Amino acid sequence: MTQIRILQLVASSRGGGAVHVRALATQLDRLRYKVNVAMPEDGGSVTAQDFGEGISFHKVGIAGGLSLPAMLAIRTLARETDIVHVHGARAALCGRLAALSLGQRRPPVVYTIHGFAAPHYPSPRRQVLLLLERWLARVTDAWIAVSHAERDALLAERIAAASHVEVIHNGIDPTPFALAKAHRQEARRALDLNETTFVATTVCRLYRPRDFATLLRGFQRLHQAVPRSRLLIVGDGPLRDQVEATVASLALQDSVRLLGLRRDVPDILAASDVFVLASRGWEGLPLTVLEAMAASLPVVASDVGGTGEAVAHEESGYLFARGDVTALAGYLIALARDAILAHDMGQRGFWRVRESFAVQRMVDSTAQVYRRLSEA
């Protein structure tokens, strides 16, 4: 059997795009596919060691944008592959320019959109980004949207033809999160949390499109109503100083903890009582929401992007309109005061992830795209 050579390109080791690439690269059938991964080593939660034997890892310095050495390296990799799969806008720019430079020798390009941000920028940057996307569509052979909301946004901006855009929901392996629940007591002790504390947790990059002002003001109201509550913020990013300043301005230093980047997220979720994610705008389909559901946590999240395709409102959690501090606080208070409600929502979320957001389904659906392009 001739292997199909796949180049997976992502612009950062931080965030859901890198986690998505790790899942694809490590779980594609090794007999059918030969995988190369190209990404920066910029201090994120995904590292070269995560890919193991049989997968070639290439460090490319595109975390800050275009660079000539990185572009030349990507071009060389693209010339020696059968399909280039780019993840996210920066990788899509670099990968498609490299493919375009190969002329008639270019391989097919697959672009997975993990959050279609261009329409959310102010003018004139918005117009420039959309024009660039339309121009690069000429070297995009297949588009994968991780949610129907993302597909709709792409089509609304006339970026791609509907026949070229497929929805493949993100998927995860729920096992590590389910197993960690058995060690809840140890996890809480490790975080210096007692059994009476109500723990709300968010896991995200401290950057756009997250809405930390709404998150912290909503938590402030929860803490006023339920003084035993605490908020854990897991992740890092350019907005850390701003988040710390907001925490101080709201006098929440004793109840909010910024834990930074962590590789023990299953344990932190096991120690938590609710997962919360506040966003201002675009969201593809957040992996951290799926992970929280796999940990049997109720989810309270902004109703933006594809989040509502994962969280069933009033069944596995609550969705609130962007910026709605009152709704966010009300949902958190309701869950803090009703442990049975929180438990039942968490259980429904757990089964929803297992039935609809399995990683193997995501991998198999993506492999079908590869096979279709390789046979064209």
State the helix count: 15
Provide the gyration radius in Å.
21 Å
Portion of residues in beta strands equals 15-25%
The outline comes out as globular
The CATH architecture classification of the largest domain is 3-Layer(aba) Sandwich
Strand arrangement across the biggest beta sheet: 3-2-1-4-5-6-7
**Element order, helices and strands?**
EHEEHEHEHEHEHHEHEHEHEHEHEHHH
Taking the sheet with the most strands, its summary is: 7 strands, parallel
The overall average pLDDT, rounded, is: 96
Which residues sit in consecutive blocks of at least 5 with pLDDT less than 50?
A: none
- CATH fold-type name of the largest domain: Rossmann fold
N→C terminal distance: 18 Å
The count of domains is: 2
Name of the level-1 CATH class of the largest domain: Alpha Beta
Helicity range: 40-55%
Please describe the structure with a list of short key phrases separated by commas or semicolons.
17% strand, seven-stranded parallel β-sheet, 376 residues, alpha/beta, Rossmann fold
What layout of secondary structure does this protein have?
Layout: E1 4-10, H1 16-27, E2 33-39, E3 56-59, H2 68-79, E4 83-87, H3 89-100, E5 109-113, H4 125-136, E6 142-145, H5 148-156, E7 165-167, H6 175-180, H7 184-190, E8 198-203, H8 212-225, E9 229-234, H9 240-249, E10 256-260, H10 265-270, E11 274-277, H11 287-294, E12 299-302, H12 307-310, E13 317-320, H13 325-337, H14 339-356, H15 359-375
Parallel strand pairs: 1-2, 1-4, 2-3, 4-5, 5-6, 6-7, 8-9, 8-11, 9-10, 11-12, 12-13
